[in-house]
Amino acid sequence: MSQFNHENDWSNRMWKAIGLNNQFTANELKYFIQKDQLPPFTLAYFPDMDHQLHKNGPKERKGIEEMDKQLQMILNTYPSWEEAIQKAVWIVHGDSGQSAPQQGADRCKYVIR
Fold first, then answer.
1. I need a labelling partner for 73 at 20 to 30 A (CA). Which of 23, 36, 65, 95 fits?
2. Which of 82, 89, 4 lies closest to 41 in space, CA to CA?
């Protein structure tokens, strides 16, 4: 993890998980976009939703709503979302499911919402 945006200091404190938080990541991405220096391949980690899901379980919706706001903020850095998808390939991936396991007769089944 590196900090390039000097105005992002407030997101990089011990009580803010030393920069391992959604706000820090979003601010760094915005910085690179505004400077037209977004690297050809950028992997950005947004840990807050994962933490909330592990803590509160799959019924947690606040994490999805907050992640959606962060993504909108990043895309709004471009003049338009159309330009954002023309200038970069955006892949959003999560490692935590939003579906609760339900016990089946012989295996675990997932309810997809």
1. 95
2. 89
The rounded distance, in Å, linking the Cα atoms of 103 and 66 is 30
100 token code pair: 């609760």
Model confidence pTM above 0.70: no
């979302």: which residue's tokens?
81
Answer whether 21's CB lies under 8 Å from 48's CB. yes
SS percent in the chain: helix, strand, coil, step 5: 50, 5, 45
User: How many angstroms separate the Cα of 106 from the Cα of each of 68, 99, 109?
Assistant: 36, 19, 9
